Amino acid sequence: MSSPASILLVGLGGAGCSMVTRLSAQLPAEVAVALLDTDARSLPAGTAATLQLGRAQTRGMGTGGEAALGLASAESEEAALRRLFAGVPVVVLVTGLGGGTGSGAASVVAGFAAECGATVLSFATMPFSHEGERRMRQANDATVKLGQKCHGLIVVHNDLLLQQVSPDAPLSESFAAADNWVGGALRGLASAFAPGALIAVDPAALRSLLSTPGSPTLFAFGVGQGEGAAMKAARAACDCPLAHAPGAVAKVASLFITVAGGSAMTSTEAFEAVAAVRARFGGETSTVLCARIEPSLGDRIEVSVLGASLPAPKAPAKPKKGAKADDPAQPIFEFATEESMRRGLFGGTPMTFIDGQDVDVPAYIRKAVRLPVAP
Amino acid sequence: MGLFDNLFRKRRDAFMGQADRDWRALVPQDVNRVPEGEIGRKRAVRSKLPTILAVGFFVVLVGVLWWAVDESVTAAPAAGSLRYKTDGFLSAEFVKKIVANGPEGFGRDVRSIKADLEGDNQVVAADVRRRGDGTLDISLRERLAVAKVASLPGKGTPMQVRLVASDGQTFAGAGYPEQAVRNLPEIQDYRATGSDDKMMIEGIEIAAPFLLTVRTTYPNLYKQWSAVSLRDCFGAQEDSPSSNLRITVRPGTQPMDRPALVEIVFSTANWRNELALLSRINVDEMLRRPSATSPAYVLKMSIQNRTNAASPVPEPRLVPLPLR
Amino acid sequence: MTSKPLPSLIAVIDVGTHKTASLLGQIIDGKARMLSFSERRTDGVVKGTVTDLEKLTQCVHEVVNDIERGSGRAVEQIYLSLSGPAAEGERVKGFVAVPAHDGKVTAKDVSEAIQSAKRLEPPAGRATILYMRQPTMLDNRPVSNPVGMAGKRLEVNFWRVTMEEGNMRMRVGMVNGMSIKVRDFILASHAAACATASDADKQGVLVVDMGAGTTDWILYYKEHILCAGSIPVGGEHLTNDLSVALRISRETAEDLKLRFGSGMHRENDVNQTIWKDGDKGVGDQQFNRGTITQVLSLRYQETIEFVRKDVLRRLEAIFPGHAVKLDQNMIPSGVILTGGSASLADAAEAVQLVMGLSARVGVPNFENESLRKPEYAGVVGLMTAAITDAPPPVRRPRGFLAQLKELFRL
Question: Which of A296, A205, A213 is nearest to A254 (CA)?
Answer without folding.
Answer: A205
